[in-house]
Amino acid sequence: MFYRFPLAAMFAVSWGVMTVIILAIFSVVGSEAALWESPSSTDVVLAVVIGIFFGSVVTCSARRERHHFGGVENVVAYRDALRTGSVPTPIDVVRWTDWINKSRARIRFQPAVGVLFLVLGLLNLFTGRVLFPAESVQPLWLAAMHLLIAAVIVFEWRTTVVRLDRLRARLEHSRPPA
Questions:
Q1: What's the Rg (C-alpha) of the chain?
Q2: 52 and 14, same structural domain?
Q3: CA–CA separation, 129 and 114 (whole Å)
Q4: Do 100 and 155 have their domain in common?
């Protein structure tokens, strides 16, 4: 459903959701402030900037996918095939194999990003220094967030690799003999 949104709506939804999530995180992990106390101006500005960045990344990625796959319907079909492992019946095997190869190439650096977040989390955990400009975030909470993000990135990467391999095997099986 989200992939069918116009790009402007996709940006607005991504920006708004991420801004609210970041503000909620800042409110929950506040240092001496009471829980859900109104956030500082620095926290609001930082949350809005992170939201704009996140919305821009989501929108640019969706635009690139739509261009690469030749439209929204092809993106949805490919995503469904990745999720379920079933290949739609009338397909162009060469085109789908190309999509799988490009998807695999796009995620090749994802483990490095996971390691970066792991290092940031360990730095915050062991040095106690906040590597983040927000006033209300404590080093332990920040370390926990970095470590959680690292785990999610690596898990998502591994899951995607398995799904791509499964889809490639199904495509090879459905390829007509030469």
A1: 20
A2: yes
A3: 20
A4: yes
Assigned token pair, 35 = 């829980």
List pLDDT tens digits, range 22-53.
888 777 666 454 555 666 777 788 888 988 99
Examine the domain organization and report whether 96 and 168 are in the same domain: yes
In 28-176, at which residue ranges do the beta strands (DSSP E only) sit? none
Question: 146, 134, 145, 127: which is closest to 31 by C-alpha?
Answer: 134
Cα distances (angstroms) measured from residue 31 to each of 45, 81, 123, 136, 140:
18, 45, 19, 5, 11
Identify whether residues 38 and 109 lie together within a single domain: no
Q: Domain boundary at 38, 69, 100, which?
A: 69
Encoded tokens for 44: 């609001």
Written as six digits, the tokens of 128 are 């106690």
Element holding 126 (H helix, E strand): helix 110-127
pLDDT in tens, 118-137: 998 888 778 766 555 555 55
